[in-house]
Design goal:
Layout (H helix, E strand, L loop, with lengths): L24 H9 L2 H12 L32
Amino acid sequence: GTSLVEIDLKDRKQEIFGFGATLTQASVKNLNRLKPAVRQAIMEKIFSPPKGYGLNFSRVPIGATDFIDPKDGIFSYDD
């Protein structure tokens, strides 16, 4: 078998801007260490179209994917 992919350029869906961004365990832990106003400013810089880059798509990995703090527990979804 072969597959056929048809693209209809007239049928527009949601535009995606921001492939590559991810919120990992380490990044969220560091964001949570910040004062709420600083955290809000960073999130606006990343996701707000009028105030920042306006990314509207990010990846949220399932399971530990990066450096983790052993105090948080070491886990995986393949135990």
